[in-house]
Amino acid sequence: MNFVAEHLVSLVVFTPLIGMVLIGLIPSDQKSAIKWAAFLWSLVPAGLSIYLWLAYAAGGVGFRFVEQAVWYAPIGASYHVGVDGISVPMILLTGILTPLALLASFSIQDRIKPYMMLFLMLETGMFGVFASLDLLLFFLFWEIGLVPMYFLINQWGSANRRYASFKFFVYTMAGSLGLLLSIQLIGLSTGTFDIVRLFNIWPGLDKELIAGVPMPTIKTVSFFAFCLAFAIKVPMWPFHTWLPDAHTEAPTAGSMILAGVLLKLGAYGFLRLVLPLFPEQAAAYAPALAFLAMLAIVFGAFAAFGQTDFKRLVAYSSVNHMGFVVLGIAVVARAYGVDAEGWRQSAAIAGTGAVLQMFNHGLSAAAMFFLVGVVYERAHTRDLNELGGGIWQYAPVYGAVMLFCSMSSLGLPGLNGFVSEFAVVRGSWPVFTTVTAIGMLGLLFTGAYILKGIQKVLHGPRNPKWAGHGMEMNAREIVTVAPLMALMLVIGVWPWWLADVINKAVVSLLG
Fold it and tell me: Distance between CA 151 and CA 290 in Å, rounded?
């Protein structure tokens, strides 16, 4: 047990890679064995992530379960991992969603071995980003998460998958280029890539790095490079256009992970790196960040309402919901280092709401994309007009599950979505009153597009088109979505078990 305790974070990060190797040893024609091996092995990092969460939540704040070893001494790079109250909920979310996504993938029949291996590689990349405390290590895991998702979309996606995967890859790489250059600049100018040390060194650094270029200018350029990479990943408006295509063409499980975890990497980057490393620039540009968040909330809701493709409707809803995350981050940025107690309290509430919204949206978005996949496998269409409603009468369990998950996404009081969005709005109102008020238009249209989806899929008279199609969910599908529904309800009724850990980390971030 001492080994597990001392290397818990590393075990969480790298056990999926061990599973990937083991699956590679199974003959390709043993499809059932490959599926079950991938699913059962994914329960190992899931169990470790739950254990990590329980151990962290038991007490203490700041970075814990830290492991550090020299990686490349001449440039100050190290293998440095650990978790705090912001990263450990995201690791928990990743650990929970990956086995469920693999279980949802049991309907995949084509080249199942590389599919499962890529999924486990993707899980290591996501875990690594949340655990990294070294900038080079962070970037390495950031890129590891890009490659598997590209191939999952490109090889197992729908008809337009090559265009969508190429667009996803190009957008992400465009942001990554500036991120890498800025990381190199920071590390080589300070002599270290250690994130914890850089929190104390980089903000106050004032020396000539490039002849004739003032240090504030260099920091501002680096700030925008970081922001661009993370804004594309969130995605923030107007960098969101890759998302609907990627979601629409990705396989069901790919969409679950893309919306559930990968989008959170961008928001996490703002909280972990942008705010502590660039506090002055973040505070100065916080109003612009809040304005873009408001546009994402409003335009994302409007765009979702205008869709006739069920999956694109859910995809645009992610732009809408992640807008609340960015709005909460903007409040924290604006209040960073400010002595006004009222603003700091509002920032703590908004920041806690933002991280909680990251977790909650991961649950509801994964569930909604899974439900889109369930109906698509039977109807072979996502066109809401072609579906024509009336499915509830053929599939009452599916109808009840979809209604429950839709209400979570809507933000119904008593379910998880309400708690986090209310916290963001409450914290944002004193700091960005006008922006928050306009953003409520998006909240109004959230209800409109959710109800549109319910009406077009479930309601109406019995549709003879779907008679004999077996529209009802099977046992595997119910088992896949049940844990997500349970968490939606538990967080909605009693959010403090999660919010308390997050709140302590956000208060510590504010200084």
Answer: 34
Give the start-to-end residue ranges of the domains of the chain. 278-510
> What's the CA gap between 13 and 94, in Å, rounded?
11
Neighbours of 16 (CB within 10 A): 26
Comparing CA positions, the residue from 306, 360, 357, 371 lying closest to residue 328 is: 357
293, 323 Cβ separation under 8 angstroms: yes
pTM of the model: 0.92
pLDDT in tens, 490-505: 999 999 989 999 999 9
φ, ψ (nearest 5 deg) of residue 210: -125, 125
Give which of 336, 302, 326 is closest to 316, Cα–Cα.
302
Dist CA 173 CA 229 (whole Å): 8
Q: State pLDDT tens for residues 33-92.
A: 999 999 999 999 999 999 999 999 887 788 888 898 888 877 778 899 999 999 999 999
Asked if 184 and 222 touch (Cβ cutoff 8 Å), the reply is: no
Do the beta carbons of residue 185 and residue 218 sit within 8 Å? yes
Residue 57 CB partners (closer than 8 Å, separation 6+)? 88, 497, 500, 501
Token pair of 346 as six digits: 């509002």
- What single-letter DSSP state applies at residue 83? E
SS3 at position 383? strand
Residue type, 279: P
Side-chain-facing half-sphere of 353: CA atoms under 13 Å: 31
d(CA 68, CA 80): 4
